[in-house]
Automatic annotation (TrEMBL):
PANTHER family: ANTITOXIN HIGA. This is HTH-type transcriptional regulator / antitoxin HigA. Residues 67-120 form the HTH cro/C1-type domain. One of its GO terms (molecular function) is core promoter sequence-specific DNA binding. InterPro entries: Antitox_HigA (IPR039060), Cro/C1-type_HTH (IPR001387), Lambda_DNA-bd_dom_sf (IPR010982). Coiled coil: none annotated. Pfam families: HTH_3 (PF01381). One of its GO terms (biological process) is regulation of DNA-templated transcription. SMART domains: HTH_XRE. SUPFAM superfamilies: lambda repressor-like DNA-binding domains (SSF47413).
Length: 128
């Protein structure tokens, strides 16, 4: 007769539950595939992800961070954005938050970086 592995998995409702789940996942993370511990790890990962999505929401990046992220993804340097932003000095000013993006820059960067205009027109603080 087959016996079924019983897991003591409960919903993550508190920070204590969350910390316990993280600790347990760390203990069984490298369990052999298709083992009871591997199944437990899969379920714990889903519960942890759900808890984190509800309690540790990360908002979208501001326009400057979005540009920097995309530059890194595309392996671009500041010089690569010079034409779209009006020169290398202007790129530096924008990326160092000394100057705001203009509508014309937003239009060009939307095409060059494949970012949405909605992302690029959001307000952000300048460094004074």
């Amino acid at each position: 007769m087959l016996t079924q592995f019983e897991m003591d998995i409960k919903p993550i409702k508190t920070d204590t539950d969350y910390q316990f789940a993280l600790k347990r996942l760390n203990e069984i993370f490298d369990a052999p595939i298709e083992s009871p511990e591997s199944d437990e790890a899969d379920i714990l990962a889903l519960l942890i992800e759900d808890y984190e999505n509800k309690h540790f929401q990360i908002g979208p990046p501001d326009p400057i961070e979005a540009i920097k992220i995309r530059m890194e993804e595309l392996s671009l340097k500041q010089i690569d954005l010079a034409e779209a932003m009006g020169g290398t000095n202007r790129v530096s000013e924008i990326l160092n938050r000394k100057r705001k993006l203009t509508i014309e820059m937003v239009r060009k960067l939307t095409n060059k970086l494949n970012l949405s205009a909605e992302t690029l027109i959001k307000d952000y603080d300048l460094v004074v």
